[in-house]
Amino acid sequence: MSLKANLAANYASQIYTAFIGIVMMPLYLSTMGSEAYGLVGFFAMLQAWFNLLDLGLTPTIAREAARYHGQALPALDYRRVYRALSTVFVAVAVVGGLVLFLLGEVLAERWLKLERLAPGEVVLALQTMAAAVALRWLGGLYRGVISGAERLVWLGGFNALVATLRFVAVFASMAIWGFKPVVFFWHQLAVAALELAGLWWKSQPLLPPQRGLPEAVGWSLAPVRPLVKFALGIALTSSVWVLVTQSDKLLLSGILPLAEFGYFSLAVLVAGGITLLTGPISSSIMPRMARLHANQQLAAVRQVYAQATQLVAIVVGTAASTLAWCAGPLMFAWTGSGEIADRTEDVLRMYAIGNGLLALSAFPFYLQYARGTLRHHIIGNCAMGAVLIPSVLAAATANGAVGAGAAWLAVNALYLLTWVPYSHARLEPGLHSRWLLHDVLPAVLLVQGAAVALHLLSPGAFGDRWSAAFYTIGFALTCAVAAVLGSSEGRRMLVRAAGRAV
User: Fold this and answer.
1) Terminal C-alpha separation, the chain
2) How far is Cα 189 from Cα 412, in angstroms, rounded to an integer?
3) What SS3 state is found at 221?
4) Quick one: DSSP state of residue 70?
5) Separation between Cα atoms, residue 18 and residue 272, nearest integer Å
6) How many CB atoms lie within 10 A of CB 459?
């Protein structure tokens, strides 16, 4: 399968999965209630924290699969690595899932702030969550085998099917058995089991057949010892990222009443769309920059870096400005509820800006990835986590979700203004000023000018969802045009598009 087809399938799958999840969330809130929806937000956070147990295993099996299919790894060695990692995956899934299962009663009675839901019902929901999270995580082994074999078109379609079963088909289950948290999570558990079975079925033919191997595969962890350094490097990077991006959710789940945590989760979900929009760009440029750097094509590395920065500035400038300036109209158009819009717009506004800053701050990491050293990234993110966690704790205790949003925005702004220029100076002296003045600010500033002008012309209040929706769409399109015109790379893309049209 061609690289373009794989990339297209990957993009399409991510966009569909994100879209269907975001579209369905207000329906969960309206049918299950805000407190029960808080459990849905807790479920999403739990999955992110469970990924800390990955220990770099999924990227490791994907890398070994790619080496095998590229004929750089013998079939017997690949089989032994696969069996060894299978043992680790199953052991971690069982132990991690069991720990979460046993913590269900403690979380329900001592951590979550329940108001209307019965503790027994919440305990059962949490225990079901634990099983579903463990099964979904175990699927990472087979995902690695499939993605390493570059069967991304199939994987993208399968992911879209699973997303439909998770987010849409759950309403059929709840229509039959009731709109209760337990029903929702039993459905998620069933889908997780089906997902695991489907991934296993697809992965098995991609493994080398055991018949004909020169020796028995055996049972040993010895084959993974040479891979430990690589796996731990990925694990440390991933762990720091989860710490930075998820610590606020964990803290708030124990500070806020569960109903308020539900509204908070909804706002954060929407703001997270910025990360989803920029994720495909980063996943595309990192291997390209690494290959160019390995071939000592340093000018080409800087060119890709600048072009990608401008593209992200266009996307982030448009998305963050729209979410920040149109938070109320957007939430009203999306949910049809003035109450939900009122209770989420401030949090959405601050997390949208914070996520935009985070997307731009990630660029020194891509440069470090290309060079094969992540020291500055790890130090910077550890420092950010050390500032973020007490800041969120203090702000959320004093001002709830809005305080947490303000802390998130402030810490991300501080990181962009201090650590990013320091990292650039250490990695590539003289790069930062051009990166900021030429690649970031022109698009961002022009977008902000357009946003301010549109806001001054805003009608203020919207009587119906359609008028709010049309205003938000018009706002986003105007910001997108301004961002493209403000970027030299955006203007070049327009010229090339016009040339092809002629």
Assistant:
1) 32
2) 35
3) coil
4) T
5) 10
6) 10
Closest CA to 485 of 476, 475, 495: 495
**Angle at Cα 48 formed by Cα 94 and Cα 262, nearest 5°?**
115
pTM: 0.79
DSSP state at residue 208: P
Residue 191 to residue 63: CA distance in whole angstroms: 27
Positive/negative CA dihedral, 247, 248, 250, 255: positive
Listed as ranges, residues in the chain with pLDDT below 50 are: 1, 216
Q: Tokens 């500033």 belong to which residue?
A: 445
* Residue count of the chain: 502
Contact 348, 294 (CB under 8 A): no
Give the Å distances, CA to CA, from 305 to 237, 293, 332, 380, 401: 21, 12, 38, 20, 35
Element housing 11 (H / E): helix 3-32
The tokens describing 386, both together, are: 């050390």
pLDDT digits (tens, 9 = 90+) for 362-420: 898 888 877 767 778 778 888 888 898 899 889 988 888 899 999 999 999 999 999 99
Nearest in space to 206 (alpha carbons), one of 62, 373, 375, 420: 62
Residue type (1 letter), 185: F
Could you tell me the two tokens for 86?
């299978």
* β-bridge mates for residue 257, sequence order: 113
**Pairwise CA distance, residues 191 & 77, whole Å:** 33
Q: Which of 491, 447, 454, 459 is nearest to 474 (CA)?
A: 454
User: Which residues have C-beta within 8 Å of that of residue 163, sequence separation ≥ 6?
Assistant: 16, 17, 20, 21
What's the confidence (pLDDT) of residue 473? Answer: 92
What is the DSSP secondary-structure string of 247-281? HHHHHHHHHSBHHHHHHHHHHHHHHTHHHHHHHHH
